[in-house]
Design a protein that fits this description.
Length: about 375
């Protein structure tokens, strides 16, 4: 992309050189082009500053500064020069596109949309304008404007995969599956192995409950090296819907543990159950339960019990400590329960029981003061 921009700018340099000389700017075009070709863009900026002192009003000189700063990755400085050009000619589509691109890259999306819309008003057949507006409106979840611009871009170039993918994705989300399919068929005719398009095909087929076709497309994608979690999940789910339980199990086995979920474990468990393999079915159901229950559930009940204690709602406190223990054994909870029974409920039997459980939990060394206290209370309660 940089080489293309350098070539274009070289042409501009040559065609504008006479006009610049007439304005007595001391610029050697060969030196400047060499700097661009060797990507020494900040050197080019310094060279331009020495050759073209302010105030500068010549648009061609401003464009050279803007270009050099932009290629050097200095977006803010580039924007300053593009704005100076814009102030002189607000109908220049190249300047509008540059300002829009800079603002989009800096995540200033409203301003990017503003400049792209101005460019669109001047040139409705500009593919890049339609494409970028479509994407920006997609990010804003403005479906109406996203579709308007993506349809326009797709009309200009129906074989461009990025636009076909974005447009079909929006259409699938809005349940316009036939339109989405026609867009994808046209684009795939030009590039049948394009993964960007094939992923949208999977999305469409799966949403339409066309599970046999989903399996075929998923496997085609996997053969190309894409084993992403989304594709594996749709493949495994499709096999399950087709009652092909062995393939369902094999599909989900391709997922690394970090991507396994309550849902994947459940479908594998149900597949094993359908195959009358009950031991792995139980193992996977157990894993599904672990995924379904937050690892912090015991802590939540502990915190609720602590608030109950502050409010002197001791029966609720007792119930919530018991719920906490249901999810995870904890020496701290045993201690809290024992103290509750001992001090508030005056139940020596249960106080003794939970003090002993606290000791059996082998508290860490840092709790030695609690251990000493508990041991003394056990002695007292045994009397």
């Amino acid at each position: 992309m940089k080489n293309v921009l350098i070539f274009i700018f070289s042409v501009v340099l040559v065609t504008s050189s006479l006009a610049l000389k007439a304005q007595q700017y001391n610029i050697n075009d060969a030196i400047l082009i060499d700097m661009y070709q060797n990507q020494r863009f900040m050197e080019a900026v310094d060279y331009l500053k020495k050759s073209c002192p302010e105030p500068i009003t010549n648009i061609k000189i401003l464009s050279r500064f803007a270009y050099a700063y932009q290629m050097a990755g200095k977006a803010l400085q580039a924007e300053t020069y593009y704005k100076r050009m814009y102030d002189q000619d607000s109908t220049s589509v190249p300047v509008l596109l540059s300002l829009a691109g800079i603002n989009a890259a800096r995540e200033n999306k409203p301003q990017a949309i503003y400049y792209y819309e101005k460019a669109s008003g001047l040139d409705k057949s500009n593919f890049q304008v339609c494409k970028q507006l479509g994407r920006l409106y997609m990010e804003k979840k403005d479906t109406t404007n996203a579709l308007k611009n993506l349809f326009r871009a797709n009309y200009i170039d129906p074989e461009e995969s990025d636009v076909a993918s974005d447009l079909s994705g929006v259409l699938i989300t809005t349940k316009k599956l036939k339109q989405a399919e026609s867009i994808l068929v046209r684009a795939l005719a030009a590039d049948s192995t394009n993964l960007l398009l094939l992923r949208q095909v999977v999305h469409l087929q799966y949403d339409a409950n066309r599970f046999k076709e989903t399996v075929v497309t998923c496997n085609k994608i996997i053969e190309q090296g894409d084993q992403s979690a989304g594709i594996i999940n749709k493949l495994g789910n499709s096999y399950y819907k087709l009652k092909n339980y062995e393939c369902c199990i094999e599909s989900f086995a391709m997922l690394p543990d970090v991507y396994q979920t309550e849902g994947t474990y459940y479908l594998v468990a149900m597949s094993y159950k359908a195959l009358q393999k009950y031991k792995p079915a139980l193992e996977n159901l157990d894993n599904a339960l672990k995924q379904a229950i937050s690892p912090y559930t015991d802590s939540y009940y502990d915190e609720i019990a602590d608030i109950d204690d502050t409010l002197k709602q001791y029966k609720n406190e007792l119930a919530n400590y018991q719920k906490s223990l249901f999810f995870k054994d904890s020496g701290t909870i045993y201690y809290s329960l024992a103290s509750l029974y001992d001090k508030q409920l005056h139940d020596k039997k249960n106080a003794l029981k939970y003090f002993k459980k606290y000791i059996d939990s082998k508290p860490p060394e840092k709790e030695h003061e609690y251990v000493a206290y508990v041991q003394s209370r056990i002695t007292e309660l045994k009397k």
